[in-house]
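Follow-up to my post from last week.
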Amino acid sequence: MALPRLGLATAWRDAARALASNGVRGDDVNWVMADTEAGLFDAPDLPLPPPGMRKVAVPKTFPALAEQVCCSRTPGAHDALYQLLLRLQHTPRLLTNRADPLVRKVEEMAKNIRRDRHKMRAFVRFREVTEPGANRRRFVAWFEPDHRIEELNASFFARRFADMDWAIVTPEVTTTFKDGTLSFNAVASVPPDIRDDTEELWRTYYANIFNPARLKIKAMQAEMPKKYWKNMPEAVLIPDLIAQAEARVRDMRETAPTLAPARARRILDRLPERSLPSGETALQGIEACTRCPLGQMATQAVPGEGPMDARLMIVGEQPGDQEDLHGRPFVGPAGQLFNEIAAQAGLDRSTVYLTNAVKHFKFTPRGKRRIHQRPSASEVHHCRWWLSREVSQVAPQLIMAMGATAALSLTGNGKGLLKRCGKIEETLEGIRVLITLHPSAILRAHDPATAAQYRAVLRRDLALAAAMLRSTDNDSSIH
Amino acid sequence: MTLQEKLALLSDAAKYDASCASSGTTRRHSADGKGLGSTEGSGICHAYAPDGRCISLLKILMTNFCIYDCAYCINRVSSNVERARFTPEEVVHLTIEFYRRNYIEGLFLSSGIIKSPDDTMSDMVQIARTLREEHHFRGYIHLKTIPDAAPELIEEAGLLADRLSMNIEMPTDAGIKTYAPEKNPDEIRRAMGNVRLRKEEARNKTHTGRRAPKFAPAGQSTQLIVGADGANDATILKSSTRLYASYKLKRVYYSAFSPIPDSTASLPLIKPPLVREHRLYQADWLMRFYGFDADEITPEPDGGMLDLEIDPKLAWALAHREAFPVDVNRASRENLLRVPGFGTKSVGRILSARRSGALGYGDLRRIGALMNKAKPFIVARDWTPGSLTDAANLRARFTPPPEQLSLL
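User reply:
Got it. Predicted complex:
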């Protein structure tokens, strides 16, 4: 079968389908390029047979693979592709088996085509040839691909350079894009002689973005083999850049440090003191806290939030992922659950001072997620200093400790939480503390029954807190 | 100063940023004829410099004037390097003209800090806006974000750019304090957190059901300098693990500390630790795509440093022989990923190929596995490693032979 230089993939596909449907064996087909190789064999090119009886079916991935391999100049590429097509008729899943020698061979060819296509996209260099007075700018490039990829690659350039006219000339095919229309011409060409002044700027960039202290010539050549250099304006610089690299690095190393220019001191002295966005918080200086190592791991300290004269303070464990990013307490999943249950219990969040026993998020990174980790007793202890400041500044009548960490921080004891829920204890400062569960205990409960039970406990205790505050309203003698 | 002289200075000053990625953004094109440029998922490296680094973007500073004094940086205020500043029009001109000639995928704009963070950021945003709105530029834009710039500016930057980045540079807060005293690690983390939140917000539909405009669709990234301060590999990798998990970074770049012109006495120049940098990238890959933890790859008792002679996966396998050999015809994906010489692609191919029949040694080679590395650690249809897995000299098989002393 003789294949044309242009429209090659379509021609192969039509021929292959017709031949396969007639059950023609691979050995009985001789695929050649119409213009060049046909003459060697002197066999008259037979017309395509009419579609035969056999149904020709291929997996979804085959057409794209075939389109690529058709461009290949590797000897036997079209034959291998046809063999593969025939085998696919009785082994439809064959393409998923990369251990098969034929699949490997064809995939290897396709990989080379993709590489060639990619290198063309990368290394084509346009030169401007706009004529004076033209309303569209015009560019021409010369490129020498390894395979017959001009048509495969043209739409890429059309999508990218649509507001200008351009031509890419290869030794065998000229691709032209004019006024938004793409056309191909199979014609032999030689490199055009065009000058473009912008290339000097590009060379300047190339020379200066190179770091002489990191010379890795092999790495460069692996990705940009020498065969491409002759058509790339920047490549003429390579030998000199390499030759001078060592001396340049030596100079940098041997030059003694200079004295800073006089303006440096003035500029540094004028830099404004950084104002930290601590806003209304009771915790001046917490951003810079290094009492425990958590501060370096987390995004920011999350101080409490609420009226500074709130009568109720609710203390949780520590900020979570969302709290850490937002810099506000109880805005993540547990916070939303808290809002919901508090509303059911008749407690208005905006009247409460909400905070955490530990102000930084403690976590273990796992892939793209952060897994919550319970703070250690020592971290709780270190952070108690900040909590104490909040307690003394807000001076609440009642504190609620949600969860074991809050209980530990406030009362010095974090054990046996379930038994202590709903009971009033005292903080180390002598303020009344109502112990209850943390809303995340509900989220983490293993079964729905337990979750429902925990939810009821938290709701009961929040309602209890609300009721206690109401009773102090009625009986002003209680402090 | 001519444009060419400015370009020389301001690209020289930009080369210490390792990132040049142009991948992973939304697909765009200009086939409508009204604009210039396209992005198609995978990035393109348009050239390679003799340092082996890819040149994908026009990577320049807007200016190399800077009011900060970071010891490792060529542009620090106390350095005597020559200073220059591009006008916004010059940056736009270079980007568009380079792009039209297919030299680049787009622009990576960074800057020294002039006057104030807000002034600087707003000039950078202005350049991106001109490119997008006046020139309908649809190529890739990467903006270096200044952490303490106003949130509105970062918001606009994210809507115009494909990627935002903030460089932490020093792996520990203490390192930042010592070498970059004007920078504030808290502020950088907070800014990265805000970018993550803003990206997540853009994923939700608006209340009218429309899709919100994409925010930094190619994500955010950062860079850590390796070898300037005393941080060991374990510290560096833990730091990047935290960054990936906390701010969903696309990439953490590792940049071997490299000699700069007019260095400071407080940070002596060294030969850039390129092998160490390479091992850190390998370790980073193991953590992101192979299910390894930082603790596994850099055990603290061994000094927390990666082995320079062999890759971190092989080092792990040699230290955990009890986990091998792995039967390639039965093992789970997780276990196959731990075999030295098997990449994510090979593992995917093994899993699908073994459905067509048990795999032998030759099959694995055809699949693309590196069998020289893999063979002591696997069992296949026609291959068992015998005592090779536990051989005492196994490590020596993989390390380069000791260099012969030259007689001359």
